[in-house]
Amino acid sequence: MSPNFKPYYAVIFTSTQKENITGYAEMANKMEELAKKQPGYLGIESSRSDLGITVSYWESLEAIKNWKQQADHLEAQKQGKTKWYRWYKIRICKVEHEYEFSSLDN
Amino acid sequence: MSPNFKPYYAVIFTSTQKENITGYAEMANKMEELAKKQPGYLGIESSRSDLGITVSYWESLEAIKNWKQQADHLEAQKQGKTKWYRWYKIRICKVEHEYEFSSLDN
């Protein structure tokens, strides 16, 4: 860990989807664009095979709370529950350490 | 958050792979089986599209440290750096809150 490392927050969103996910991709893109404009947004990483994992990164718990309550996002959450997600789990985490590797023959 | 919620730890492992990943799947399965036997192991979630995200969950930082230093895992890490990963980032996080959703028409 760098001596200058400043802790930040991660939201781990793990999900399985229903078979019919009409409208999902459009909404997901819209929400990602919107999240990027939120105060305290740091980044997002996303992957989906059987399971979907999206991790978004934030400066503070306050920033996460504000994003959770953003009006368009509230509507997306509602649609997510009724239309697209079979199951999801959200974990709010404090990132305490991090390290990175890049291969030389990249 | 449940009043009985007990914080635990997550290791977020985000990666991109090289084109030739011969031997990777076998090693990944082996490591997952091995992790499950480690003291303090709680669970694992994995997904890969362009980006791979694997999140493993642990009771304590001590459990994560022990897993990091496990002999077969050290060998896997070494091979990961030289053979399979183009890039990776590891974040050690404390899970402070969590909530879960299951659809009724599941």
TrEMBL record, chains A, B:
Pfam families: ABM. The keyword Repeat does not apply. One of its GO terms (molecular function) is monooxygenase activity. Its EC number is 1.14.-.-. InterPro entries: ABM_dom, Dimeric_a/b-barrel, Jasmonate_Hydroxylase-like. It comes from the Bacteria. The keyword Oxidoreductase applies. Residues 7-78 form the ABM domain. Keywords: Monooxygenase, Oxidoreductase. PANTHER family: ABM DOMAIN-CONTAINING PROTEIN (PTHR37811:SF2), BLL5343 PROTEIN (PTHR37811). This is Antibiotic biosynthesis monooxygenase family protein.
